[in-house]
Each structure stands twice: as structure tokens, then as C-alpha cells.
Amino acid sequence: VFIAQSRASGSHRDLEDEELTRIFVMIPKSYTEEDLREKFKMYGDIEYCSIIKNKTTGESKGLGYVRYLKPSQAARAIEECDRSYRAILAEPKNKSSESLEHDYYSNNTRQEPRGNTFPFCGQPEFCSFEKSESRVQEPVSKRLSVVSRLPFIQEQLFALFDLVPGLEYCDVQRDPHTNSGYAVIQYSTAASAIYAKYKLHGFEYPPGNRLTVVFLEDGSDSSE
Q1: What pairs with residue 88 in β-bridges?
Q2: Is the omega angle on the peptide bond into residue 151 within 30 degrees of 0, that is, cis?
Q3: Is residue 164 part of a domain?
Q4: In terms of domain of life, where is this protein from (predicted)?
Q5: Does residue 69 belong to any structural domain of this protein?
Q6: CATH no. for residue 67?
Q7: pLDDT tens across 88-106, in order?
Q8: What is the number of helices (H) and of strands (E) in the chain?
């Protein structure tokens, strides 16, 4: 089993893709790597923990990495850990830690995250919700609409979206006049829906057929 990525996501890798298994967290400066491991081991099997330190003094900067063996474990940690850790998916190692620290602080210190809506705020698409007042009102929900110029196969589409934890249902419909595909996807949390939209909007499935994924109003208070 492997996770397919859109071309914009970079090279194709296997399930243990670093982009999906490594999280970046804000921690007390007194934490050791053992403290960090102890706090996050309840969410899955940890491959390693590391703390970012000042190169001159050797003191902790209050930031760290936790890498899990499976993407589902990293997703669970982001979803369930205390909000004070402000956990996000870490950028690949080819992006410098200084650049990531700058992005992280600029995105996370402006205001407190609201519920589970912004747990992936290290990603540019999610941060755009906060960057301008005109975008803050963009409807975010647990439900997604998926459109394709080719018809969907229920089992295949379900399997694709089920790669993101929390899938509740996948309802595939078909327009007999245009033969295009349409489906409604719902997750248990808005965080899962946001992540699915980020990863699968524009994804070619099957190859050459680009998916359009947008939020659908689900009756909940989107400000949460």
C-alpha cells in the first residue's frame, strides 16, 4: 500500500513518506528528548525525537520533531495532542530548520488556533485562511464535494479518501447526461476534511483526470 501524491507534492514515495510521518511541535524549553518521547508515544510508534537547539549555547529553542512509523500515527498525534503543542506536519528535511522556524512562528503566534480548523497551519493553503479577513469567512466544513469529468467507482474513491483518517461516508453520484463523476465525502472532523482537500484537490485520478475538491456546507458553525 502506498499514498499517491499529486505532481505538485513532489516526488512519489512510499507509505513512510517523511512529509506524512514527521510532526513539528512547540514545547517548553525545559523538555528533553525523553520528555518529548514520553508525551507523544501514546499516539503511535516513534522512530525518533529531536529538539532544535541554539548552535552557540546548546539551549533548546522550544521546538522539536517527532517522527512516527506510520502517517496515521502522525495524524492522530496532530489531532489529539494538547493544543499548546501547536503540532503541524513538518516540512521535508531539504527545507532548512531556520526557514521552518520562521514560517512556524509567523503562522502560529498571530492568534490562537480555533478548534481543529488550523492544525496544519504550516502549509501555505491553510494559512491563507488567516492571512486576510476576506478569506476567514470562506466556508470550512467536514463535508467535501468531489467533481471529475470521468465517472467514479464507489470502492476506488472510498479507498482513496480513506487514506485520510476519519472518513465517515463516501456517496458517489453520476450525471447520465454528461457522464461526469460527482461525490460527497464526509469526515468526522474539519481537520481531516481540510487535509484531504489539501492533498487531493488537483490530484490526477485516474492519471490525466484532475479531481476538483471543495468544501460543502454541513450545517455546522464554520468558525469552530
Answers
A1: 24
A2: no
A3: yes
A4: Eukaryota
A5: yes
A6: 3.30.70.330
A7: 888 766 554 555 555 555 5
A8: 8, 8
